[in-house]
Predict the structure.
Amino acid sequence: MASLDDLKKRISSVKSTQKITKAMKMVAAAKLRRAQESAEKGRPYSDKMNNIILNLSNGISDIENAPKLLSGTGEDKVHLCVVMTSDRGLCGGFNTNIIKKAKQYFQKVLDEGKTLKIITVGTKGYDQLKRLYGDNIIERISFKESKNVNYFDADKVGKIVIEKFEKKEFDVCTIFYNQFKNVITQIPQEQQIIPLNTSEKDENSLEDNYEFEPEEDEILSNLLPKNISTQIFKAMLENSASEQGSRMSAMDNATRNAGEMVDKLTIEYNRSRQAAITKELIEIISGAESL
Amino acid sequence: MSEEYSVEIVNPEKSFLSKDDVTEVVVPAFEGEIGILKDHISIISFLKPGIIKIFSKSGEESFYVNDGIIEFKNNNLSILTSLILNLKDIDKEKISEIQKSAEEELNKSDINDQEKYLLDQKLEVLKSIN
């Protein structure tokens, strides 16, 4: 059995750990509210953007000459994956879930004999992927300095993706992120952004005849790059809400576990204290008897 | 019959402005300014840097936009833009900041004609505000 002093030290160390996890939980809860709010506020923009693009792509008569961002390069050889993770750890299964989802996809791509290229956003994703897929990672981006998710960061990522597409470095682009459902559940998502998936058509908007200025092709080719950034921005917002939610529940668990541990250690401490007292008493009594 | 319709301006971060007592909106569309009144035909167009003017019952408001896209349908006008500033509480520093970055961009050698045109427009508008 550990000595009394050791037990005492352990109890106080667990207690201070508990204090830290508790504080982190509080911080995450406060940040979560803000992140959730901005995720909700960001939705109208991406929804509207999506709607307009759907309307436009329905109106395109000449599929052959449609912008490449919409119709794709016609090939399916090189896959680019943008894996979005957090910059900080201690957030439960948040990063692991995204990575797991991404790895499945990577395996599928590689099994089919296609080329795989990876862009990691956030340092944690890079750390987890560099050992297995180090050669496939062509770019690593991190926004450690920016406090809040903002559109200009997303735009930077979007521009990198588009630049690579224009240089014909890949055919298909998929982004990986966590969708925020609620504090306990975050669903890892894979979303193909190039070529754009226009299968989910909005029925009620079909009959409308729009007037376009300038030509619809031109609007579309201007709009599609913006849409890429918007989709990435949406993913970043969802991700940041998910990260905070995940961290909050992880820290909640940690705090509870630490509490249990303190209880157990306190019982052990009291037991051994009592045993020591009993032992001393026996010694005194038997000493007195022998006189 | 009322002559009013609704307008919504959204930027990526949030819904910037939403009004339903608007009588006319003037937007700097790519091929020239468009004034939109009630029952305009459905239109999609994108914007060049410039000033959006909104006339409503409660008065007139002006905003500076960097870029954007507008959609008008069933008397609903949606304006999507990445950067929008209200001219009423605009601060000069911000303007000169944008102006400076636009000038830097303009001095790069690898820009195409369309970009150059847009940047020229931007500088012109910014100068007129300042």
